[in-house]
Structure formats: structure tokens, C-alpha cells
């Protein structure tokens, strides 16, 4: 089963937990995620199944959108509500003007220190593994881009926000750094991811919905696989930056063998999605010259071929 599935992750599960559950529901080992989501966080977690796991490489630098709440008054070692307090709690009452003034400094391209409890690697070891063992975690600041950071409301010591950020940005670090800027400490109390690349919460399905659909195997009149596939994103909506081209039978045969082909593409794009019919995404092809393309990745069912 090849496809893209958007899961609305509940709080308390790691991204790998979600992958394992979907593997069991689908009865399929080849399932991966496109962008880790912290256990505390909820929201969309894009998954790829079957040969479509090869598409994950195109989402490494995907833009993401979030909504959440920052709590001021004390900081934590994880920079979120699941960590241990690292400063004495303070009674804090914030004004909208005060928060907006601080938030302005976090918009655009900024230097950010990743949280010690993060997947950033130190000599090949994820930082969170060292932090859990109470070993020293020395990370370097990285340049990130916060494209939008909107303050939605201020209530006492809590601030609701909406953000759109480039890949690699930690909203936990934003919360922590805002607390330092105000001088009272802060951490991320809640976070919901509302978009990754072209995918939004409107595309998402819960694990409960997916599991219930998979259980229709008890009804002999229902094909459980076809029922589950109704939750998959239509392949023509995936990677919208690549134009879609429909290949004829002869061209399909050449693509499946990894050979160069002529495609009827007038977009002049460097890469295109090649389809057989409306739904079967065969390959991502790269233009060589004119209308001549080489299949970079062949995705057809039962075939995994990456030409050199």
C-alpha cells in the first residue's frame, strides 16, 4: 500500500509510537513519518507508506505552522510543561503591549539555541539521551526563520500564539527565550501543529478513526484495505510544487525499467510527478533537456528503483 496519510497525533505519544500503531492497523511494515512531533504536542503528523517512503526526502525542509500557549513565571529543563522546573515560580501578570514588544524580536531570521532535550546530535548521540542521563549537553545556536508569530491573547501569565516557521525551528526555545527576555522564566505549556508543507488539519485522521476503519475486516462485504485507503491523500495533491504529467502505456513501461522518456510537459519545471491514469503516481522525474526526463525515483506498486 503506497500513500501519504496525515495523522492527528494525540498528546502523550511519540512520533515513533504513532508509526508503530499505524503499522499494526495497516498490517504493513513500511511506514515512516515526515517530521517529528514532541510527545506533549498534538496535531498533524504526515506519514508515508510503502514505496512512498521515498518521498520523505522532499519534505526535509518543510515549513510548519503551530498554535499554542506559553506559560510565564518559571522555566523547565525541557522548555515545556513535561519538564522539571529550573527556576522559582513567580506570580506574573503580563500586558498585551509588553508581550507584543518581546514577540517582535522573535520574528524573521534569528539565532536560536535548541533545547537540551532535543534530537540534535552531539558526536552522533541525540542530545535528549545525554540530558536524560544528566550529562552535559553543549549545543551551538542555529539560524532559524520565524515567518509569522502572532499573539492571539494574553491572560494573566499565559500567552496564546500562532506561528509559521521554517524547518528546524523549536517553539519550545521561543517560549524559553521569551521568558528570559522578560526576566521571569517561561515554558511551552501546549502546542498543536496545524500544517506541514501542503498538509493541514483538514487532511488529518485520528488513530481511532483509522483503527475503526481497519476493523471492518470483520464484515465480509467490506474490503478493509480499500476502506483505509479512503483516508490517504490523493497523490495529485502531494508535492504541489511539481507539475503532474500523465504517461501513456509505452512511456509507463520505460519508466518502470528506469529508462529516460519524453514527457508532454510544458511547464519547464525541473522535476515532475509522472502518473499512470489519475491516481497511480509512478515516479518523480528530472528534466534532462527539452521534453526528455529521467525517472529519479520510481514509486509504482511493488517496484522500488532509484536510477543512478
Topology:
Blueprint: E1 3-9, H1 15-26, E2 31-33, E3 42-49, E4 64-72, H2 96-103, E5 108-112, E6 121-122, E7 125-126, H3 127-132, E8 142-155, E9 158-165, H4 171-182, E10 186-196, E11 199-200, H5 207-214, H6 224-229, E12 244-246, H7 249-256, E13 261-262, E14 271-276, E15 280-289, E16 292-298
Parallel strand pairs: 3-10, 12-14
Antiparallel strand pairs: 1-3, 2-3, 4-9, 4-10, 5-8, 6-7, 8-9, 10-11, 13-16, 14-15, 15-16
Using the 3D structure, state the CATH architecture of the largest domain.
Answer: 2-Layer Sandwich
CATH class of the largest domain: Alpha Beta
Low-pLDDT stretches are 302-308
The counted number of beta strands is 16
The rough form would be described as elongated
CATH superfamily (homologous) name of the largest domain: Pseudouridine synthase
Write the H/E string, N to C: EHEEEHEEEHEEHEEHHEHEEEE
The assigned structural class equals: alpha+beta
Oligomer, anyone?
A: single chain
Structural notes for this entry:
The protein is α+β, with helices and mostly antiparallel strands and 308 residues long. The chain folds into 3 domains: 91 residues, Pseudouridine synthase; 133 residues, Pseudouridine synthase; 63 residues, PUA domain (Archaeosine Trna-guanine Transglycosylase, Chain: A, domain 4), CATH 2.30.130.10. Helix content is 19%, strand content 32%. The strands form 3 sheets. Strands 1, 2, 3, 4, 5, 8, 9, 10 and 11 form a 9-stranded mixed beta sheet that branches. A 5-stranded mixed beta sheet has the order 12-14-15-16-13, covered by helices on one side. Strand 6 and strand 7 form a beta hairpin. The protein is elongated.
Amino acid at each position: 500500500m503506497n500513500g501519504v496519510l496525515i495523522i492527528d497525533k494525540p498528546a502523550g505519544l511519540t512520533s515513533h509510537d504513532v508509526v508503530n500503531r499505524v503499522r499494526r492497523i495497516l498490517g504493513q511494515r513500511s511506514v515512516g513519518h515526515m517530521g517529528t512531533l514532541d510527545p506533549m504536542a498534538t496535531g498533524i503528523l504526515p506519514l508515508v507508506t510503502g514505496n512512498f517512503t521515498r518521498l520523505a526526502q522532499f519534505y526535509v525542509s518543510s515549513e510548519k505552522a503551530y498554535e499554542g500557549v506559553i506559560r510565564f513565571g518559571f522555566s523547565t529543563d525541557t522548555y515545556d510543561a513535561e519538564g522539571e522546573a529550573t527556576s522559582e515560580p513567580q506570580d506574573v501578570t503580563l500586558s498585551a503591549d509588553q508581550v507584543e514588544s518581546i514577540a517582535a524580536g522573535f520574528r524573521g531570521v534569528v539565532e536560536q539555541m535548541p533545547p537540551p532535550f532535543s534530537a540534535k546530535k552531539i558526536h552522533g548521540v541525540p542530545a535528549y539521551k545525554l540530558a536524560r542521563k544528566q550529562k552535559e549537553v553543549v549545543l551551538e545556536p542555529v539560524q532559524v526563520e520565524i515567518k509569522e508569530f502572532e499573539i492571539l491573547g494574553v491572560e494573566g501569565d499565559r500567552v496564546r500564539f500562532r506561528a509559521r516557521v521554517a524547518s528546524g525551528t523549536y517553539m519550545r526555545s521561543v517560549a524559553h527565550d521569551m521568558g528570559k527576555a522578560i526576566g521571569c522564566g517561561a515554558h511551552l505549556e501546549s502546542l498543536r501543529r496545524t500544517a506541514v508543507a501542503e498538509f493541514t488539519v483538514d487532511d488529518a485522521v485520528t488513530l481511532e478513526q483509522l483503527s475503526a476503519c481497519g476493523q471492518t475486516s470483520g464484515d465480509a462485504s467490506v474490503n478493509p484495505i480499500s476502506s483505509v485507503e479512503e483516508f490517504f491523500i490523493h497523490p495529485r495533491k502531494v508535492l504541489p510544487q511539481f507539475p503532474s504529467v500523465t504517461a501513456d502505456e509505452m512511456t509507463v513501461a520505460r519508466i518502470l525499467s528506469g529508462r529516460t522518456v519524453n514527457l508532454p510537459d510544458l511547464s519547464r519545471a525541473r522535476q515532475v510527478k509522472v502518473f499512470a491514469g489519475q491516481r497511480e503516481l509512478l515516479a518523480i522525474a528530472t528534466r534532462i533537456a527539452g521534453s526528455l526526463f529521467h525517472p529519479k525515483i520510481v514509486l509504482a506498486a511493488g517496484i522500488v528503483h532509484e536510477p543512478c
